[in-house]
Amino acid sequence: MRTPRPAPAAPEGRTSWKKTAVVAVPAVLAVGALATVMAQGVLAASFAVSGTHFQVSSGKLTSSGLSSYVHTDRDTDGRGHPVALLGIGKASLADICQSAQVKTPVGTVVFKLTAGGRAGPVSADSLVIDGEDLVGDARFGTAQIGRDAASLDAVPGVHGPKGKFGLQAGDISVAGVRSHAWSATGGNFRLKGLRVSVSLDGEKCF
Predict the structure, then answer these.
(1) Is 108 among the domain residues?
(2) Residue 179: phi, psi to the nearest 5?
(3) Would residue 4 count as lying in a domain?
(4) Tens digit of pLDDT for each residue in 168-184?
(5) pLDDT by residue (tens digit) across 154-164?
(6) 139: phi then psi, degrees, rounded to nearest 5
(7) Are 129 and 169 contained in the same domain?
(8) Domain total in the chain
(9) DSSP labels for 109-149?
(10) Do 129 and 195 sit in the same domain of this protein?
(11) Is beta strand 172-190 parallel, antiparallel or unpaired with respect to 135-140?
(12) Gap between the Cα atoms of 156 and 168, Å rounded
């Protein structure tokens, strides 16, 4: 009886491309998917928040869509902060103000960022705000309240865990926006008339 010959080994120094492809393709797809998500600005919950919430305000915000669900941000000490994650599609803001109180060796200072107004509107793609609240006079297009968070599709990439409460809407317009937030991310920010200031006696946004 003949003993079966072993399969010929690949010559030393050469690569078996079939085997390499099996491993490489999923890795390339994963990297591509991550790059797409980062470009859409939907990694708001992927970093530890500072533990200091901040104010955000705008005279008027308009967007092509809104998705929202309940989420928990965590700071570097592991403490959780429940938030309403607000995903806003192509956002346009008449103006924007962001301020935070920060403790320093010389006292508590106010860090403040403003833009827009007379300089022109502020815009951002896939703006994601992890907020404690949102106040304003709103007008929504078609709204779906109580939709499964995993099925949200009004804003690309913004959806939550299966079985959790979510809501979404079509075109939106909110006047007199005020929010206390833990984090905010977005892609393609355009901040006309940007101004950043830090001062001991500075005023907050509201």
Answers:
(1) yes
(2) -150, 145
(3) no
(4) 999 999 999 999 999 88
(5) 998 899 999 99
(6) -130, 125
(7) yes
(8) 2
(9) EEEEEEEEGGG--EEEEEEEEEES--EEEEEESSEEEEEEG
(10) yes
(11) antiparallel
(12) 12
| Whole-angstrom distance, CA of residue 172 vs CA of residue 91 | 10
Please count the CA atoms within 13 angstroms of the CA of 59 that sit on its side-chain side. 10
What single-letter amino acid sits at 140? Answer: F
Whose structure tokens read 């500072």? 50
Does residue 35 sit in the same domain as residue 69? no
Question: What is the number of other CB atoms lying within 10 angstroms of the CB of residue 4?
Answer: 6
Amino acid identity for residue 91 in this structure: A
Based on the fold, state whether residues 122 and 30 are members of the same structural domain.
Answer: no
Please check whether residues 59 and 87 belong to one and the same domain. Answer: yes
Range of the domain at 41: 18-46
- Which of 100, 97, 84, 95 is CA-nearest to residue 123? 95
Over the stretch 11-56, which tens digit does the pLDDT of each residue have? 444 444 333 333 334 333 333 333 333 333 344 444 556 778 899 9
Residue 57: alpha-carbon gap to chain centroid: 17
Average pLDDT of span 135-153 = 94
Same domain flag for 112 and 132: yes
CA distance 36 to 137: 33
Q: Tokens 């827009």 sit at which residue? A: 116
Residues 41 and 142 in one domain: no
